[in-house]
Amino acid sequence: MSKLNLLTNLGIGALLFSTVGLFSVTGNNTLRAQDASSNETIENIAEDETNLYGQQVTVRGEAESIEPGMSFVIEEEGFLEGDEVLVINTSGMMLTEDSEELGIQVTGELGTLVLADVEREYDLDLDPNLYVDYENKPVIIADSITLSPSLENLSESPDNFYGQEVAIEGKIGEMKGDMAFTINDDQWIGGDDVLVINTTGEPIPTEDESVVVTGMVRPFIKSEFERDYDLTWDLNLQEEIEAEYTEKPVVVVDSIYTSAKDEGVFE
After folding, report:
1. CA separation (Å) from 222 to 132, 177, 250, 262?
2. Contact status, residue 190 vs residue 234, Cβ threshold 8 Å
3. What is the pLDDT of residue 24?
4. What CA–CA distance (Å, rounded) separates 16 from 217?
5. Which of 72-76, 163-167, 207-211 shows the lowest per-residue confidence on average (mean pLDDT)?
6. What is the pLDDT of residue 8?
7. Are 185 and 152 in contact (CB under 8 A)?
8. Which residues are bridge partners to 57 per DSSP?
9. In whole angstroms, what separates CA 21 from the centre of its chain?
10. What gap in Å lies between CA 38 and CA 193, rounded to an integer?
11. pTM of the full predicted structure?
12. DSSP structure string for the chain
């Protein structure tokens, strides 16, 4: 199966991600990622440390199927077992094994699972035996799912993501003029980084800020980017980017916001 179809459309909805209201400009005209109230940690939701019930939340993690095509749990990424939250999938997108392994971002309404109510409201027929352990616990009714690969996966296997919308998490690294910057793994020194091109017309985020960037992945081909975007790079920057990033993956920004951080297993 082609990995270009890591999320399979079931025909009952579209993959949507709202970009409205995700940018704010500070007094010094520097774009900082907003603190989005919907951007939460799995830990806070699983341990009932949030007051966002009835509201939209966005979380990222690894998925494990419960009832294929209908539900899964999303859990903290890492080597040690962490918290998890049940997700009922009403997005119209079905996870494949590849997308489960790569990581996903889920957006949907946070509630408490009462299986009969969920089945009635969303016209679903779920297997009650699979949800005994989740009854009266937090559940996200997902209306949006997108891939959320690590920077390492994106850098080392870019062909898997070209032409797809992704959500990548990391720290703002080096500024590349007024339209581009790098994002790197803020957990590993010397890890992979990815070039991000901001064509929204807004100022660039500040360095060292931990953010999530959503956007389309494309290979950097100078002629195509000059054709498709009104780039304002001077000759030296053009040559630098072309030399370093030609044929490498680039994320063209749709939205950016502050990354929600788990406290960690040792906190």
Report:
1. 54, 16, 11, 38
2. no
3. 32
4. 16
5. 207-211
6. 52
7. yes
8. 108
9. 17
10. 26
11. 0.80
12. --GGGSEEE-SS-------TT-EEE-TTS-EEEB--TTB--HHHHHTT----TTSEEEEEEEEEEEETTTEEEEE--SSS---EEEEEE-SSEEE-HHHHHH-EEEEEEEEE--HHHHHHHHT----GGGSGGGTTSEEEEEEEEEE---HHHHHH-GGGTTT-EEEEEEEEEEEETTTEEEEE-TTSTT--EEEEE--SSSPPBPTT-EEEEEEEEEEB-HHHHHHHS-----HHHHHHHHHHHBTSEEEEEEEEEEPP----TT-
pLDDT, mean of residues 113-118:
96
Q: DSSP readout, 134-151?
A: GTTSEEEEEEEEEE---H
List the structure tokens of 8: 């399979």
pLDDT on residue 200: 78
The single residue listed with the structure tokens 């939340």 is 57
Residue 82: C-alpha distances to residues 23, 258, 262, 264, 266 (Å): 31, 22, 10, 9, 12
Dihedral (CA of 109, 110, 111, 116) sign: positive
Would you state the structure tokens that stand for residue 175, as one six-digit string? 């500024």
- Please give the structure tokens belonging to residue 39: 């951007």
